[in-house]
Each structure stands twice: as C-alpha cells, then as structure tokens.
Amino acid sequence: LRGSYDLQDLLAQAELPTILGTELNLQKMSNNNLRVGKVLNSIFFELEADEKEPTESTQQPKGPEVLELNLNHPFLFAVYDQDATALYFLGRVANPLTTV
C-alpha cells in the first residue's frame, strides 16, 4: 500500500492555527522566520506472504495463537500499539490481488 496525502485542508478544518498560522513558533529550530507551507503524509506499507510451511526448527515458541488469513477481498487494517494505546496507521486495501 503506497500513498501520499495533503493534510493541509484537514488540519485547517481542525482549527489548528498554531500549526498552520503565524502563531507557530519555530525559533528553537532556526532564527529565521519559518512557516509551514505544506503538510504531507506519505506511507508505504508492505505485507509479504510466507508460503513456506514451518518446520520444527522454525516454529515460534508457545505464545499467542497464529491466525491464518486469506486476503483475497477488500479489507481494513490498523497498526496499533496496545502498550501506548496509540493508533499509528489505519489503511484500506480495495484490491489485494494487485501489486504495487
């Protein structure tokens, strides 16, 4: 999954003037009068299929149950950190049978 998104409108709608407006203070980064011109989010997420059957030497130690999936139809996925209770990424794959 690869994408690049312009977040300028989204942040403006969220009314975050300290990020987009003249109130932003970047003096710790530079003595020049810096301003944010554009906010972009670019991602690349790759999931590779491992079609090898595990052998005794490659099997994982006892732990969480392994869930086998056949991703041959549209799906949503998330990258979530349970310890930090933070959602890092939410994605949608419309056609998993195509390659990037």
TrEMBL record:
Q: Which part of the chain is the Serpin domain?
A: 2-96
Q: Which domain of life is it from?
A: Eukaryota
Gene3D superfamilies attached here? Alpha-1-antitrypsin, domain 1, Antithrombin, subunit I, domain 2
Q: Which InterPro entries does the protein's record reference?
A: Serpin_CS, Serpin_dom, Serpin_sf, Serpin_sf_1, Serpin_sf_2
Name the record gives this protein: Angiotensinogen-like protein
Question: What organism does this protein naturally occur in?
Answer: Callithrix jacchus (White-tufted-ear marmoset)
